[in-house]
């Protein structure tokens, strides 16, 4: 009888091990390519279609998707905490001064609604942030980034109190920015490339007048400084007014290497732009990217991949929000 019972005991023990392994594996899952291939096969196609449609209606949405990725991932995790509005005990990160000028959050709902119609409660808002940035970059004539992994889950809260510390300020030093990116596992070369996103950005006058008044920053090209003063005629601009200058006047809606050419000519808007072109840690990369758009695109793609994989929630962590603006009701 003992011999007859042995196979059943071994089988039961083996099944228990499989269950334990399954629990452990699910709770510690990793991002992967084409995560939704079975649960929502058209997920990435739907996001791409929505990004394209929104771009042709509202061109600046593509820039917003890129900025969303940065602001979401540098604050703790790529977990869509940025998208949460103030409600249900959550204080939105969008209230921070570091989020000044961010817009188009309402169009995230358009993308999410299309996904919910196809596959309810399946695709995370965090993956929408990552994939919309990828597809937005293409709309801005930037590189096609094929290796964006998915499988992120959404946070159940926001990190408003951490935003001021973790999102770089307009006058932060280069050393501070390099240190922040290094803490996320992003090397100097990739950091220099990611700052090339400024090619399609703009800076509000409230964040650059300190370089123009009461005296012009001597590191600025004099003619360019006069142009900036025309864009920002007051040392005390109304923070609620839409007064700004684009980082790149030549190709303002194209992710290209013009940003590096500009900062080498002392035509950067922020202090960090000037430091990036002159600091020995970064200047060689700036010069190489200014000379070779293909090299810039290659390193920019690598930087976006690294950024998008920053400390994601996976497996049974977090949740899949039904509406990206709010945590799910319990």
TrEMBL record:
Note on cofactor: Binds 2 calcium ions per subunit. Binds 1 heme b (iron(II)-protoporphyrin IX) group per subunit.
Catalytic activity: 2 a phenolic donor + H2O2 = 2 a phenolic radical donor + 2 H2O
EC number: 1.11.1.7
Domain of life of the native organism: Eukaryota
Signal sequence annotation: 1-29
Cellular component GO terms held in the UniProt record: extracellular region; plant-type cell wall
Residues binding substrate, per UniProt: 168
Compartments it resides in: Secreted
Residues bound to heme b: 198
Cofactor: Ca(2+); heme b
Gene Ontology molecular function: heme binding; lactoperoxidase activity; metal ion binding; peroxidase activity
Keyword annotations from UniProtKB, A to Z: Biological rhythms, Calcium, Disulfide bond, Glycoprotein, Heme, Hydrogen peroxide, Iron, Metal-binding, Oxidoreductase, Peroxidase, Secreted, Signal
Top EC class for this record: oxidoreductase
Family: Belongs to the peroxidase family. Classical plant (class III) peroxidase subfamily.
Free-text function comment from the UniProt entry: Removal of H(2)O(2), oxidation of toxic reductants, biosynthesis and degradation of lignin, suberization, auxin catabolism, response to environmental stresses such as wounding, pathogen attack and oxidative stress. These functions might be dependent on each isozyme/isoform in each plant tissue.
PANTHER family assigned: PEROXIDASE (PTHR31517:SF80), PTHR31517
Protein's recorded name: Peroxidase
């Amino acid at each position: 009888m003992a011999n007859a019972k042995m196979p059943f005991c071994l089988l039961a023990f083996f099944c228990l091990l499989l269950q334990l392994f399954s629990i452990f594996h699910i709770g510690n899952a990793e991002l992967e390519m084409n995560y939704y291939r079975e649960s929502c096969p058209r997920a990435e196609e739907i996001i791409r279609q929505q990004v394209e449609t929104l771009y042709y209606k509202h061109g600046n949405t593509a820039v917003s998707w890129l900025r969303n990725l940065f602001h979401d991932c540098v604050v703790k995790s790529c977990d869509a905490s940025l998208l949460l509005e103030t409600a249900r005990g959550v204080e939105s990160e969008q209230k921070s001064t570091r989020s000044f000028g961010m817009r188009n959050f309402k169009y995230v709902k358009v993308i999410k609604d299309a996904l919910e119609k196809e596959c309810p409660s399946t695709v995370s808002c965090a993956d929408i942030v990552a994939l919309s940035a990828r597809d937005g970059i293409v709309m801005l004539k930037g590189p096609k980034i094929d290796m964006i992994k998915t499988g992120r889950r959404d946070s159940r809260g926001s990190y408003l109190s951490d935003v001021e510390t973790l999102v770089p300020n307009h006058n932060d030093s280069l050393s501070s920015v390099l240190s922040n990116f290094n803490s996320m596992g992003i090397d100097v070369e990739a950091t220099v490339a990611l700052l090339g996103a400024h090619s399609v950005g703009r800076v509000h006058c409230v964040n650059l007048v300190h370089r123009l008044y009461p005296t012009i920053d001597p590191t600025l090209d004099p003619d360019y400084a006069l142009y900036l003063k025309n864009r920002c005629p007051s040392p005390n601009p109304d923070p609620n007014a839409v007064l700004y200058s684009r980082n790149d006047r030549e190709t303002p809606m194209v992710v290209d290497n013009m940003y590096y050419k500009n900062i080498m000519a002392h035509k950067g808007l922020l202090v960090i732009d000037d430091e990036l072109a002159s600091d020995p840690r970064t200047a060689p990369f700036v010069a190489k990217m200014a000379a070779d758009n293909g090299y810039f695109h290659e390193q920019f793609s690598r930087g976006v991949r690294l950024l998008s994989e920053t400390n994601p929630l996976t497996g049974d962590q977090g949740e899949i929000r039904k509406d990206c603006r709010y945590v799910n009701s319990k």
